[in-house]
Amino acid sequence: MSPRKEWCFNMTGWLLFTSSAVFYIWSSARAGDGVAVIASLLFLAACIVFMIPAWRLRPPRNQD
Q1: Model confidence at 62, in pLDDT bands (50, 70, 90)?
Q2: Which structural domain, as residue segments, surrounds residue 35?
Q3: Number of domains in the chain
Q4: pLDDT mean over 50-58
Q5: What span, in angstroms and rounded, lies between the C-alpha atoms of 10 and 16?
Q6: Beta-carbon-side half-sphere exposure of residue 29 (alpha carbons within 13 Å)
Q7: Does some domain include residue 30?
Q8: Stated pTM of the model
Q9: Kindly report the CA angle at 61 between 59 and 62, in degrees rounded to 5?
Q10: 59 Ramachandran zone, left/alpha/beta (phi>0; psi -120 to 50)
Q11: Considering only CA atoms, which of 21, 51, 14 is closest in space to residue 37?
Q12: Calpha distance 64→59 (Å, rounded)
């Protein structure tokens, strides 16, 4: 598997984790569970922290 394709799979996984964090925030906010909102916000922040270096170190498109 090419480095670019592997990066695409990894980034897709991080985007899915990030979107699930957003839905957990929404759900726990609707339920009024403050602890779950804080935990979900921390999970979202962690996903973003992991995505930043993955995005900055992505392989060029011509390596497919």
Answers
A1: confident
A2: 18-57
A3: 1
A4: 93
A5: 10
A6: 9
A7: yes
A8: 0.83
A9: 105
A10: beta
A11: 21
A12: 9
Q: Give me the residue label for tokens 């394709």.
A: 5
Task: Summarize pLDDT for 4-38 with one digit per residue, the tens.
Answer: 999 999 999 999 999 999 999 999 999 999 999 99
* Sequence letter at residue 46: A
Assigned domain for 62 exists: no
Tell me, yes or no, whether 47 lies in a domain.
Answer: yes
pLDDT of residue 1: 85
Whether residue 1 is contained in a domain is answered as no
- Please name the residue that has the structure tokens 């498109």: 61
Three-state SS for 1-64 is CCHHHHHHHHHHHHHHHHHHHHHHHHHHHHHCCHHHHHHHHHHHHHHHHHHHHHHHCCCCHHHC
Dist CA 39 CA 27 (whole Å)? 12
